[in-house]
Prior knowledge:
22 helices, single chain, mainly alpha, 2 domains
Amino acid sequence: MVSVRRAVVLSMAQRYVAFVIQFVASIILARLLTPAETGIFSLSAAVIGIAQMLRDFGVGEYIVQERDLTRQRLKAALGLSIVISWPIAFLLLAGAHPVADFYDEAGVASVMQVLALNFLLLPFGSTTSAVLSKELAYNIMFVNQTLTALLGAVLCVALAASGFSYMSMAWASLASMLFSLLFLVIVRPQETLMLPSFANLKPIAKFGGTLTIGRLVDQLCRRAPDMLIAQGLGFQAVGLYSKASTVLDAFQDFFVSGISRVATPAFAKSRHENNDPHAAYLQSVQMLAVFPLCFFPLLGLLAEPLIRALFGATWMEAVPVIQIGAISGFLSSPYFLAPPLLTAHGRVKEILAVQLVGGLIFIAALALAAFHSLEAVAIAGTVCTVVKLWLLQRALSSTIGVRLAELLAACSRSATVGAIATVVGATPLLVYDGTGPGALLTLALSGVASVIAFLASIFLLHHPIAQEVLAWWKRRKG
């Protein structure tokens, strides 16, 4: 079994490797496919994406957090996954032509029909992947997911070059799913090749249903700004808000998601071994909160040169949205591990309450702010974040007894490191001249200065992450 530290490294490394593979493939595909061909696949994938929110139905999380995962319960989890995924597949197959007729594009039906086949295969691979996550077997998952991404990218490019047009991406997706399943059959046949059970599905459905409702609410909150801003402020404002959201979500996409994939099984494992969850959470926050406490203050201060360098002067109105959003990220630093911990303890109702209450407040505030300004929309998001953090604090307190004062104390050293890195990293702004080349130079100097300040301060302040850096360096030398 892989250690938690190595699992985190492998999980994050897999995300970065997959990103590089997909980025290179997208550059090549942009020269092989027209925007119209890409648009047909994107539209079809968007329709499929709505169904994808339901397909797993929280079965993976149930497997990870279940203390006594018997063979019968694993078969029942597979059975529920089939009960959910297969009807969705048939509905997508049946609905492909009506959707294509609605958009007056026959290619949409062809893509949807191929992508729908993935839902027939998904239950067998997802249950096995959940077992691997529970065991922290991220070495196996790294190999599987990396090879799958590489195969999909190579096959997609080859098919596109051979004239398969938008279908190249659909067939590559199906081939990737088949390869991933075959890999799992070889390495873990005992979980992949078993008969499903359709008895005693209620506990799994109750757990997964609660989790799925929360995801739907979260997805609604993600889509609501585009719809409401378009009505109140126009499509240009939608584009600006979307660009700001892309920048703000970078930390979530490239750090939190990689950590969270390991954190849930790690917290569940600690719980099953009767370790102290209170101490485990505080230790995790003490070590990892330093990253958002460094990232978001710097992002807020460097938002102007960042937008100018990456997207150009046309997008400068997104800067205030990023700066306000960075406040939300900074305040959330002690809580980004709270959802994985609550999930690991089976407290999905608390997570649902956070999403429902926070989501309703956000949509209500957004309905007013979207007719005023983008800054008002960003402020509404920050207010919603504060409410969610209050609810998360209550959930943590009732679940593992963590008090706000303890969380702040656990973050104190990280906050000092973040302050030092921010002050030093923002120094190049003193010579920033407001031009594109000046923005690139400012970002480069800031990156070097903040990394040096970060490394120096973690050692001077004896931050726990410094010990991890030293251990990594010793292993590398050895």
